[in-house]
Each structure stands twice: as structure tokens, then as C-alpha cells.
Amino acid sequence: MHHRVGNVAFSDDCGKVVLKDCAPLCSDNWAVYIERISNDEIAYGVFSFEKSPTSLSMRDSMPLLSDELALLISRINIETVEIIGSKGSYWHLEFSTTRETHPDNMEEFLLFAQNCTSLIESPELSGDFLKYFSRLISEAALKSHGTILACSKEFESKKPAEIADAVLINPKLDFFEAFRGYVTLKSAESITHLSRIEDLLQGFLNCDGIVVFDELGRVVAYRAFFRSAVATEQVVGGARRRAFEGLRTLVGTSLISTLFRSQDGLTLYEGPQNGQ
User: Fold this and answer.
1) How far is it, in rounded angstroms, from Cα 119 to Cα 197?
2) pTM for the whole thing?
3) How far, in Å, are 187, 213, 232 from residue 269 at the CA level?
């Protein structure tokens, strides 16, 4: 669905006109489009796109438009703008002195998502759910002010002493069951339920502290704060980065993996490199 707002002469100032008319109309479900209709004129407006757990995001869809000349421009964090071309090109504009380590891929989120779905036994749904879940946690992390995620096995009974103050969630936030309900029923109730727990996950990531997942696609705890007698003064960065470096020492024993996303775009992963 799209709504055409108007036309404007192509010039250095046309972007200001487009944003003034269209930016207030945009939300998670609506975006601005600009179409060149002649050498001297552009058309512009807003459009919505299918946003279901099984649909491709606009970012993932860009390579499918290789026969068209198109660009997708989006803000992926507070100081970074990403530009993706339909021919496979990527550009990142950093409005910061801090540069992202791996700006052009989401491999860290995929590895972490594989950890968090490794015990799901559903051959008919596991592949689609992994794509959905990886995209979900990456988008939630990008919208947050920075976060730390951890994947743990039997967290309630084997809670690491270093994050023992975590707030347990009862019942667990079960994304796989919600996803299965959506795929099976496709009812208004199943869609609403999945949307609500997605919103709640965003709330967890917006809180201070570490969000803990298990291997069944569930959030089991949040607001965990790392405390250890081992000093981390050598680490360059703030409290969140120091906490992540501490969590790294637990991977392979108390934790399966952990993922760090800073407010300015740095993403770090510690765990199995095959995601299993």
C-alpha cells in the first residue's frame, strides 16, 4: 500500500520538502519513498510493507531488486545511517568518532540466534523460525540504547553467581510457541500475541542489565547485572562493555554464548562459531 503525497522539482533542496511532508507520517509500518519520474522531477510519498514473522524485511529484499536501480536508506542506530543498493553495495555513514567493527553484516546476531534455537525440534518450522528470530533480536538491539544478551542452559537451576540478581520471567517469553501459533492459525489473536511479546522483548532490551535466553527461543530473565571479584580495569569502554568482558569468561561453562551491542554500533559475540 502506498500514498502519493506530491511531486517536486529535482534540486538540492528537494529532500527537505520530502522530509517535511512525509517524515511525520512514518512509523514502524510506514516509510518514505522517492521516485525519479523525469530528469527534472521526483514523486514522493509514504508506503507500508508486509511485516509478518515470515516475510522478508526491506533490508533483506533489496538484493531481489537487482534489475532495478534502487537505494534503501535507514538509520540503524543513533549515529549511523546505512545505505543499501539493489546491486549489492553497502555504505555506512558514521556521525561519530567511534566506528563499528563489523558494519556490513549481521553474522553475530545469526550465531547468537542459532544458540538460542538449538534445542527446538521442529524440522518443518525451525528454519523459518531461525530467520525470524535472528531478525527480531537484531532489530530490537538496533533500536535499543545498547544491550547485552546471553544464552544459558537451565538458567533457573544453574544460575551463574556473577548474574544471580537476574529477574526471572514467569511464564517465560516463548517466541517459538507464539511463532508456531501464528504459522498454524494465522488468526488475529495469534498475530496480536506475537506482536505483544515482540514489544515486551523491546522493553527488556531497553532496560539496563543483561537479557537471558535459553535454547528453545525463550527469554527467561532480564535486568541481570554482572558482578565479579575479577577486575576489568584494562577494558576500554563503559560499564556495559566491562560487563560483557566479564561474561565472556563464563562462556563454555555457565553460559553458551553472549552478545554485546553498544549504543554507537559496536557488535561483539562470544560463543560457538557454528552457532551450535
Assistant:
1) 21
2) 0.72
3) 36, 15, 18
